[in-house]
Amino acid sequence: MNKRKSLWLSVSCLLLGLLVYYVCPDDKLPADISIDKLVVYKSKRQLLAYSNGKLIKIYSIALGGQPIGDKELEGDKKTPEGVYFIHDKNPTSGYHKNLGISYPNKEDKANAKRLGKPAGGEVKIHGLRNRMGSIGKFHRWFDWTLGCIAVTNNEMDELYRSVKIGTPIEIKP
């Protein structure tokens, strides 16, 4: 096989693989399920959803642009680590929909004060930026948020429907 044919075949296989990845549906969360606990493993880029102590679904996620380490300051592009809760739901976010995470807590505020800087806030689980939803699952290939946890818009719809205000979320390294 000549080099041109081999290159064409390689590019075709790559494009076909990307298309399959993009259109292949993920498992859907059952419509009537209530999620009562969320756990994030930053190093694995996973968000685990539990109901009554049972793991229901694992979501692949994107994080802040500087994902290693705990969030300390506003603008550090880190996703916080610790135990928080969902304290807000926004159906008209600039990022499809979102669930607000109760960062900063007392310890986060005290740490930022020691450093003489603001702790920041507005950490969310959110979908993709409005009018960018067609990126779909490809967003997972990069850590692109300012410290939030990002999922696809369809996944955000599931979480928005199934997670109630007050639900605990534990974010681990």
Give a quick summary of the entry.
The protein is of the alpha+beta class and 173 residues long. 24% of the residues lie in helices and 24% in strands.
Structural class: alpha+beta
Poorly predicted segments: none
Query: What's the gyration radius in Å?
Result: 18 Å
User: Which CATH top level class fits?
Assistant: Mainly Beta
The averaged pLDDT comes out at 88
CATH superfamily: L,D-transpeptidase catalytic domain-like
Percent of residues in beta strands:
15-25%
CATH topology: L,D-transpeptidase catalytic domain-like
Spell the H/E element sequence: HEEEEEHEEHE
Give the terminus-to-terminus CA distance. Answer: 48 Å
- Main sheet properties: 8 strands, mixed
Tally of helical segments:
3
Coarse morphology: globular
Give the strand line-up of the largest sheet: 3-2-1-8-4-5-6-7
Helical content stands at 10-25%
Q: Compute the number of strand runs.
A: 8
CATH architectural category? Beta Barrel
The figure for the number of domains is 1
What is the topology?
Blueprint: H1 3-23, E1 37-41, E2 46-51, E3 54-60, E4 82-90, E5 98-101, H2 106-115, E6 124-126, E7 149-150, H3 153-162, E8 168-172
Parallel strand pairs: 1-8, 6-7
Antiparallel strand pairs: 1-2, 2-3, 4-5, 4-8, 5-6
Can you walk through the features of this model?
There is one protein chain. This protein is an alpha+beta fold and 173 residues long. It has a single domain, classed as Beta Barrel (L,D-transpeptidase catalytic domain-like), CATH 2.40.440.10. Helices cover 24% and strands 24% of the residues. It has helices at 3-23, 106-115, 153-162, and strands at 37-41, 46-51, 54-60, 82-90, 98-101, 124-126, 149-150, 168-172. The mean pLDDT is 88.
